[in-house]
Amino acid sequence: MAVVSFMTTKGGGGKTTSATLFASVLAEQGASVCMIDADPNQPLVAWSADAVCPETLTVIGDVNEDNIIETIEEQSEKNQFVVVDLEGSANLSTGYALTQSDLILIPLQPSKLDANEAAKTLKFILRQGKSVGKSIPARVFWARVPAAYVTRSARDIGSQFEEAGINFLETSLIHRDAYTGIFNYGRTLENLTNDQVPSLDKARANAASFTSEIISLLKEIRK
Ligand SMILES: Nc1ncnc2c1ncn2[C@@H]1O[C@H](COP(=O)(O)OP(=O)(O)OP(=O)(O)O)[C@@H](O)[C@H]1O
Ligand SMILES: [Mg+2]
User: Where do the domains of the chain lie, and which CATH numbers do they carry?
Assistant: First the structure.
């Protein structure tokens, strides 16, 4: 089992979208995956209520500081992967979830505002790790970036993070209508159709690369 949490204090940064892509690609490949919806707005609970998705994917909501650790532990015993979609605030419940994670992924868009929030999130992760005497692996990744080119601001922000020793995932999540389509149509990428969203093949390939890079990273972390 592995626990992967998606976190940034930046609202609308891409946590729920990227967590769902990762979880649903794995579930479509046959892995048992539990998503924990730790956002009080419960977007994943609402999505899963009538979404067309594989039986190997379950979503659990209603978590709080009193039960999040136990919920993660319990679901880790039952599933190969636990994917936690955190709310965008550095509170007790979020902190507990981070301490239970094997890997934390921080979505970042090429703006100074997002970069500041990602830096804040990294400091919070560092403190949470110290509080339990461990260093919790974390990676930043570009979420929702335009296809085909890297903007100057993305390059600048990227180099600042790298100079500070903060690692990026190699795979960026591209801005794709298919990713919004998952929620608009209540489906996974696998069962969306070409008449619903454009460039579905490209979206599937991008989500698959994103997922396989995370899996390789988890294997490396375990060594
Ligand atoms: N790669 C992408 N391509 C297209 N749209 C995207 C992508 N990533 C996110 N979005 C859209 O951006 C918006 C915010 O994304 P999302 O809800 O995943 O962010 P969040 O960090 O979970 O937000 P919150 O802080 O509210 O929990 C949504 O409308 C989502 O559909
Ligand atoms: Mg969200």
Answer: 2-222 (3.40.50.300)
